[in-house]
Write a structure and sequence with these properties.
BirA Bifunctional Protein, domain 2, five-stranded mixed beta sheet, nine-stranded mixed beta sheet, 31 strands, YbaK protein, homodimer, alpha+beta, Rossmann fold, globular
Chain lengths: ~600, ~600
């Protein structure tokens, strides 16, 4: 492609103020994307080339694994999502599905994921176990009405995903295929030139038995990954389990009540009373709202040196109730407290707070759903809220069992924790960007949408399903987080918009023009992705642009054109060689071969 | 691809009842598409291959013409469409844009077309005439909330389009590029194996000076094309102009009033009173609703043997008023008449009906906007409504000028009409399917969205714009309307999902399996799109499926495998030859070369 006639660049001098992380800044400055609205971007020609290269890598690997590409609608009838019982959770409350009514008043959602649509299709085209397994995938724009779109394409409202769905005749076949897809994913990310790791993950709103995320490690990542040095364990913090450290034993206090004026946080109490956080039990109040309109008040207790994991808590509460949990909010708002609770000294609540504190005329359930984290369940002597403003209490010989507590793991694992009681391995922590996620869905969707097949024994059974996502536009941005310097992007060659750029320092010079065109045509004839910057601009401007947009190799055509000599520069390792133009192609090919 | 492991077919035995035209039936029966909702379809793997082939043909030709591919968002902020003054027309009344509010309550439309978005981008990236011309295009799913989705992908609510937008420094450069794109379009449709014609067209809601549609002629087409045998003229009926036939002179009637009991149609009056339709003037009442809420009653008069062209009428009224026309409805509803008009004998209205018939308390304008078609303007003696139930009137020496009539062409040209007063060429009529549309937009959008460039003289000027659409999914279906027989589809090879299919009559036979695999691998190595039907099915089932899905060539592997002989069948011309397997590849290549 030539810059002047068919491939205009749109680099910017200044960094737009909206960008907060480096990859977002570089995408904007490099002219890769342009903002149309909050979380909504246009992919400019140079960006689309990156997207198409990533898509091609994904397609090749999936096709090799017997997957078949199709394209599903983006408008999803509400009726389908009501059958799978996800409509409410995806559209009400914190629901992230854009939705609308058509001219006839019928409701539709804009697809963030396609389990419902593909399951309905599978129910129509799959009859017999002989047709199984099958895996369909698509690469398509998806929609999520993010409450706070940010980080460019990382958390945008329109983004491109590969989503795939597999169908199986047994749980075992699903598990086998899931493993195979995990391997395929590793290969895809490697082929994109990325360093990615697979970690255990929460299944979230998609549901299902088992799931694994693929993470690009980068400081700008929104996720926390916990892992062992040996590689024996890796998990997203949402899912990670560990053994908490031993608590410090509590010495005997003289009085049962402890005056703690304005000491509402664990930190304050410890500081003022010379206590260790592990001697305190923190009580956090949540309100759980269900699809059937139930409002359930939650009392969650955890050791003071630990943090509540809201994903684990959400899943636990959802599992323990027949109706779907839609929202889980911490109760901190004074007016909500006053409306629904009586004599309720927020900041000084103990695990033994009475059910009577819930007002009779509140629309909440009239009994606390009490949960205690494993870290706290064995403590019988500890400090916690005194249920009275400015007072905490010393609990002695307290038994959580007597108060009908549900005991569970609702805690964030953290750096330094042991991975289990037997092992001495401890967890480390890093930030990660999620670029892929695979799930064993089981029969959740097939049961609800009546997608059956007839098995070897002639019996109708629900299909077993897996689902497999890759964030295509996210990969592009994550690759930048792993590959940049102070001058701009350093694309992995596999997904670079062009493999090489020719920069004539003065394109008006007939010698330079001739040599540029000669090399350009020669490279093109050899199917190399080459860009020719034939603009009538100062050389410095062209060098800066080439570095900013991050093309892996540069061919500089200058005064030595007269000797048919050029400079060949590698963007990432900054090597620079002078070379005769007739040796250039073979040098380029041998240099790049090792990189693919 | 192999049917069992990576390319499942989904053919149906019965034709789904929803389909009304042959191409729609064949797409469903062939397993190409599956209906998810009214006007919303999934593109199954075999369909996606057709779509990708068409897309590739379009891309290659556009890239050759210096166009650059990008990808724009599908969610469009309402604000942008309000600036171009299209939001109301596209979302209110008969508006076809799906629209929604996000979680923050902000309005968005789902893009049916992208003039606004691309113009905003152009306004940011184009500064100087030196950067012009430029043309950007994308291939993307578009949305239209059709009031009556039908004919499968022909008039669906989600469909794939190529839309392109060009930017120029002058009207002349735009006109040149528009011509060049017209030529590129002809080539694209030819490369898709289609017979298409370019016709003059109405610019519709897109706006602009000049536009041309590309039509595939087919009986199932929704459009009427009028053209001369010589090719000197071709236009969509919405736009076509012609000279109406001469009227029959009216003999003198004895009385002014003509009793016409229950004779509300031209046909009835002519039959009962021995008149010719050209001796009558038909008066049709419309109500025009504008964006500024004006309701303007329209009195449209035309000769009784002619039909009103509502597109011409709409454009005329829109042009004559400062506010945008949103709806134009015929007034036939009795309750609307009674609410707004007094003493109004619908069916017996004459061109001289009084303004006083509009009720004082109606929210309509109190004066008829009177329009007379060219076909009627010179008649001074004619029959028309008597403004009294069951009476018509003989008008003698009537002058339209006296009544403040706007004279214009608001008539449908029709088969047999002369194309102009000088020529003897007459119009013929055919049905057509619109597959492409190009427009000279002029400065409509750049003026409204403030997209300027600095010209050679250093002055800021509005960009000149063109826009260019191709219906990708429509092409696929239109190709079927032109290429099918009683057994199924006969794809043009250029856009067929596969070029050739291998059908072993008994795949369990080791000889057949070996020969099938040998041919399959040989063809694949030569980059031929080949499908191997390796199912354990009866030969008859496989033959029927191959014919239905319409792969251009079939390789039948049967008992002659032992002699390494196979049958080679052309789907479209039904030729069948026996051939040695080692001659097959070269025969295939020479047969197909001529077809591309």
């Amino acid at each position: 492609m030539r810059v002047t006639t068919s491939f205009p660049l749109g680099t910017l001098r200044d960094t737009p103020s909206e960008a907060d992380i480096i990859s977002h800044k570089l995408l904007l400055r490099g002219g890769y994307i342009r903002r149309i609205n909050s979380g909504i971007y246009a992919y400019m020609p140079i960006m689309l080339r990156v997207i198409e290269k990533i898509s091609k890598i994904i397609e090749d690997e999936l096709n090799n694994n017997g997957c078949t590409k199709l394209l599903l609608p983006q408008l999803h009838p509400a009726d389908l999502w009501k059958r799978s019982e996800r409509w409410e959770a995806y559209t009400a409350g914190e629901g992230i599905m854009f939705n609308l009514k058509d001219r006839q008043g019928k409701e539709f959602g804009l697809g963030p994921t396609h389990e419902e649509v593909i399951t309905i299709i599978a129910s129509e085209i799959i009859n017999s176990y002989k047709q199984l397994p099958q895996c369909f995938y698509q690469i398509q724009t998806k929609f999520r009405d993010e409450i706070r779109p940010r980080f460019g394409l990382m958390r945008s409202r329109e983004f491109i995903m590969k989503d795939g769905y597999s169908f199986h005749s047994s749980k075992e076949d699903l598990a086998l295929f899931y493993e195979k897809m995990g391997k395929a994913y590793e290969k895809i990310f490697k082929n994109c030139g990325l360093q990615a790791v697979g970690v255990e993950a929460d299944s979230g709103a998609i549901g299902g038995a088992s799931s694994k995320e693929f993470m690009v490690t980068a400081d700008a990542g929104e996720d926390s990954i916990l892992f062992t040095e040996s590689g024996s364990y890796a998990a997203n913090i949402e899912k990670a389990v560990s053994i908490p450290s031993e608590p410090v034993e509590l010495e005997t206090y003289r009085s049962e009540l402890l005056e703690t004026p304005n000491q509402k946080t664990v930190f304050d109490i410890c500081k003022k009373n010379n206590l260790d956080p592990s001697q305190i039990i923190k009580v956090v109040i949540f309100l759980a709202k269900f699809e059937d309109k139930t409002n359930l008040p939650i009392l969650a207790c955890i050791r003071g040196d630990q943090q509540i994991n809201e994903v684990k808590l959400f899943n636990l509460i959802n599992l323990k109730h027949s109706s779907s949990l839609i929202n889980l909010d911490i109760i901190e708002n004074k007016s909500i407290v006053e409306k629904n609770l009586v004599d309720f000294p927020l900041g000084f609540i103990g695990p033994d707070i009475d059910n009577k504190n819930i007002k009779v005329n509140s629309n909440w359930n009239k009994k606390w759903f009490r949960i205690v984290d494993n870290s706290a369940k064995n403590l019988s002597t500890f400090i916690s809220g005194g249920n009275k403003i400015n007072f905490h209490k010393v609990f002695k010989k307290y038994s959580f069992e007597e108060e009908e507590f549900l005991t569970a793991d609702i805690r964030n694992a953290k750096q330094g924790d042991k991975i289990n009681a037997e092992s001495n391995e401890v967890l480390k922590e890093k930030r990660g960007i999620e670029i892929g996620h695979i799930f064993q869905l089981g029969q959740k969707y097939s049961a609800k949408l009546n997608a059956k097949f007839s098995d070897k024994d002639g019996k109708l059974k629900n299909l077993w399903m897996g689902c497999y996502g890759i964030g295509v536009t996210r990969i592009a941005q994550a690759a930048i987080e792993q590959n940049y310097d102070d001058k701009g992007i350093c694309w992995p060659i596999q997904i670079a918009p062009f493999e090489v750029i020719i920069i004539p320092t003065n394109f008006k010079d007939p010698l330079q023009m001739e040599l540029s065109n000669e090399i350009y045509n020669n490279f093109k004839d050899n199917n190399i992705d080459i860009l020719l910057d034939d603009r009538d601009e100062r050389a410095g401007v062209k060098f800066k642009d080439a570095e900013l947009i991050g093309i892996p190799f540069q061919i500089i055509i200058g005064r030595d054109s007269i000797n048919k000599e050029i400079e060949f520069i590698s963007r990432s390792n900054k090597s620079k060689i002078k070379i005769a133009s007739n040796k250039l192609l073979e040098t380029f090919i041998s240099e790049t071969k090792a990189m693919y």
